[in-house]
Design goal:
The complex is a heterodimer of chains A (105) and B (165).
Chain A (H helix, E strand, L loop, with lengths): L7 H22 L6 H21 L7 H26 L16
Helix pairs in contact in A: 1-2
Chain B lengths: L1 H5 L4 H27 L2 H31 L15 H37 L9 H25 L9
Helix pairs in contact in B: 2-3, 2-5, 3-4, 4-5
Classes of the chains: A mainly alpha (105), B mainly alpha (165).
Chain lengths: 105, 165
Amino acid sequence: MSEKIVSMQTYAIIFATLVVFTVITYRVSLIDLGVLNFVVALTIAAIKASLVALFFMHARWSPRVTQLVIASSLFWLFILLSLTLADYIARGPNWTHGLRYPANP
Amino acid sequence: MFAVASNELDLTLGFINTLVLICSSFTMATAVYNAQHGNRKWLIFFLCATVVLGMVFLGIKAVEYAQKFEHHLVPGAHFSIEGTDPNKAQMFFSLYFAMTGLHALHMIIGAGMMIVLIAMAWRNRFSPEYHTPVELGGLYWHFVDIIWIFLFPLLYLLGRSTIGH
């Protein structure tokens, strides 16, 4: 198989980056940033997942078709989340009422 | 209450578990690397390391589940929690057990796969030209890790800053 062999150095760097991001997620979760907490936590999670997918799973060096399959499954998930959120938004002017913590015990 | 319920989860254990899984992804990638280079001994070593880390993860999960049982946080007849709306907390724990339970099941299946790969590697079935099962096992393992990467903030980190420890 003529496949790209990724160097151990690359793996080690990605591993260290993942650990750093995990620590950041943990520290940030202890500071109150309001709704930003949610955004930051999920953004960092998305970055970590991308790193695992691109480097550990070799998606970066995969054929275009494989990359297309990965991208389209993410797109499908996005459709799921958007339509769910659309239901929330359609509930009237106070649609964020149930989403904020700790305002609604 | 949802956020209050989330704060009942042990953040330290969840954090350690996340690091354990990220390490196991690293050992898995290293195992694939050694398969590509035909290093049988190191391949077997890193596959074993991946399984061991997976077992550590499951062990910590078991400890967490035991804590939930003790604290009456398992949804059902014996559920009890302080606060204004225990039903919302119960809903959180239903989701918690469903999601982490399914994830743990996938980890167990993954561990089984690793053991099969170790047996195959032991019998010298892999070479730089053919090591596809190792790569596929790696893809599966990384996939389960990615799921946990999302589960951790979603379940453990809600409302920590506003209510939590």
